[in-house]
Amino acid sequence: MTTTYTWSVLSMSTLPLVDGETDVVVNAQWLLTGVDGETAANIGGNSQFVLEQGGSFTPYADLTEAEVIGWIQSGLGESGVYSMEMCVQGQINSILNPPVSPEAQPLPW
To answer: What pTM was computed for the model?
Structure first.
């Protein structure tokens, strides 16, 4: 099967005032969940943000989860997003095909 990945924002922290803007998001805790059939795994993380001077600003009340996920993924970069997804995929693979661990055996003599 194919794994479907879903990013979600669990919480955000704000500063009351930054460069004249109020309730500026400076931190987001997130969760990446992968589902393959009935098997699921996840990994969480924490991303920090800095308000860019002269950049666009969305008021806190107008933010969407998709916008914040975009910030998170942009901060991680393409390789970081891929790495997180492959970490979740590795967990799923281990659930579906558990690794075999060597067992100690009594000596034959």
So the answer is: 0.87
